[in-house]
Every structure is written in structure tokens, then in C-alpha cells.
Amino acid sequence: SQTIHQWPATLVQPVGSPLSLECTVEGTSNPNLYWYRQAAGRGLQLLFYSVGIGQISSEVPQNLSASRPQDRQFILSSKKLLLSDSGFYLCAWSGLAGSRYFGPGTRLTVL
Amino acid sequence: AQSVSQHNHHVILSEAASLELGCNYSYGGTVNLFWYVQYPGQHLQLLLKYFSGDPLVKGIKGFEAEFIKSKFSFNLRKPSVQWSDTAEYFCAVNSFRGSGYNKLIFGAGTRLAVHP
Questions:
Q1: Which residues, listed in sequence order, are joined to residue B104 by a DSSP beta bridge?
Q2: What does the alpha-carbon distance between residue B61 and residue B9 come to, in Å, rounded to a whole number?
Q3: Is the pLDDT confidence value at A9 over 60?
Q4: How does pLDDT run across A66-107, given as a tens digit for each residue?
Q5: DSSP secondary structure letter of residue A72
Q6: Which of A59, A102, B72, B94 supports an S-S bond with B32, CB 3.0-4.6 Å?
Q7: Which residue in chain A is spatially nearest to B52 when comparing CA positions?
Q8: B46 at the A interface (CB within 8 A)?
Q9: Do the chains contact at B108 and A105, CB–CB below 8 Å?
């Protein structure tokens, strides 16, 4: 069965510091991968998606970037964090007809 | 632009009460519809989905949802809620763009609190 991992689970970073959040998927090959940010009362906002290695599309302009160095690895990064980057970040892969399967998430607090 | 609206942000019920959470979407083309649930401290997980066929869809834990195309709605229902149904519920709509990617749009979510 498919499993999706994210780490770290929680992270506290100062403003201006870099960021790297990692997501890996097991049990499937060539998945579509997604990064979402979840904010209270605002649902899930799609940040990036990837249909293959090295292929990244951004849904919204922002301070973050994404990379896909391997088929089942998806990384969310920033060179300099802003306070507004605080949030709950979810990685997901898509299954049948667009169903999304989510990882456990990373709670990021920028101070 | 496509959007998904969930009418209630917070719902408070007593155990055994009936539940209906509203979801409306704006998109005129082919869609797939989903309800996701996030229990406290747990992953976001799929509750049920509609692709085609019978517009009344049954999911896990006694939940069901009805797709009414004329109303662009996909409301979630449960006849009798339990304390363990306390969670946040998200409606989502998948619109098709073409090969390789389909966009899943989420509603803002509804927090359900069930009191014993």
C-alpha cells in the first residue's frame, strides 16, 4: 500500500532563515505530487504540483519554491522565511480521478 | 474562477442528532466530488467520493453525500452523529484540465463538535 511521509513534524524557525521540508512517497511510481498549506478557516491552498522529476508548477506567487529531485521525493524550500510563511504544510499524491492522499503535515512557526 | 463554498464554518451537535453539511461549487464542466475529514491530531483522509453513476454516495463511518447537479451541490449527511465524529470536514471538487494534472479545489472547511 502507498504511504506518504513528511518531516519534520514541527518546526520553529526565525524570520530570514532558510527552510527545507521533505516529502517522500512509498508504494507507487511516478505519482503526481502536491504541496498544500492549510490555514484555519481557509481550507487548503495548493502551492505547488509536480507531474514528474524536475517538473514543478506553482499555483500562487510566494516566497517558497519546490523541487522534485527523485520520482518519489518532493521538497518545499525557502531561502528566507517570512512571518506569513507560518502554517501547516501538507504533501499529497493523487490517485484515482484526482483523489488526494495526504501526509501527516508539518507545522511551521516563523518567529 | 472555480470555487467551493461550505456554508457552515462551525457546527455544534449533540450525540444522535442528524448532520447535514452544505457544499456548493461553481464549475460547469465535468467534476469529481470529494469529502475529506481531519480528526484531531490525525491525517486528512478521504471520507467519500463521487465520480459518476448513483448520485447518492455512501462513505465510511455511516456518512453519505448526495450530488445534485442542478444545484451544484454535494451535501454531506449522517443520520445520527457520535462524539467520535468531532472533526473538520472539507468538501473538494476536481475539475479536469487535461493530461497529467487535475486541479482539486477545497472548501474552507467545517468544524464539527459533537457533545455527548
A1: B94
A2: 22
A3: yes
A4: 999 999 999 999 999 999 999 999 999 987 667 888 999 999
A5: T
A6: B94
A7: A97
A8: yes
A9: no
